[in-house]
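Format notes (please read before filing issues)

Several people have asked whether sequences and structure tokens are stored in separate files. They are not. Every record keeps both together, in the order shown below: the sequence lines, then the token lines. Line labels are part of the format and must not be stripped during preprocessing.
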Amino acid sequence: MLPLTSSMEFSLAAELAIAVVLGIGFGFALERAGFGSARKLTAVFYLYDMAVVKVMFSGVVTTMIGLFALSAIGLLDLTQLYIEQTNLVAQIVGGLLFGTGFLIGGYCPGTSMAAIATGRKDGLVFALGMLSGVYAYAEFTPQLDDWYKAAALGELTLPSLTGIGMGWWTLVFMAILLGGAWGMARLEHRFSSLRPQTGQ
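Then the structure lines:
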């Protein structure tokens, strides 16, 4: 059964080594895609470069396909996967805060690390601000954690809510991805005049 930790015993050193290798690989991919630049990341909010959305949405759908395929051939028990409990109010507010921070700072947690690795000072400032916010939340708002747990709706998934199997939902999201890619290409063409000229 996958994941490997369910059938293989890894030492702490091995787990840390795997994490470092995967982290370096992920950061390298982010930087090569241009996601270590705040300009590239904020371009999505001006609709002339939707690369960030394309990559993230493609990643989500690819993961769905992989999970469904592994489940279908008996290599993965989906019930063993951890799912964060749903709290609509908290997650909507958190998403809005995250998006605002993304727009203002030009980074998300992962891309800020990639920016730091390539010597970008704005990435360092963003990461320090992010860590300060995490610390402040943990230290000064413990009651929010209690509220979040009390108001949680449990582990909600589209198959459990609708009775429609994961395979069908995978097909739906594949169709949405294809339609979204077409729509994003139209947006990029429509707002291409906002793209900064080379050298600016």
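For reference, the curators noted about this record: The longest helix spans residues 166-190. Residues 8-194 form one domain.
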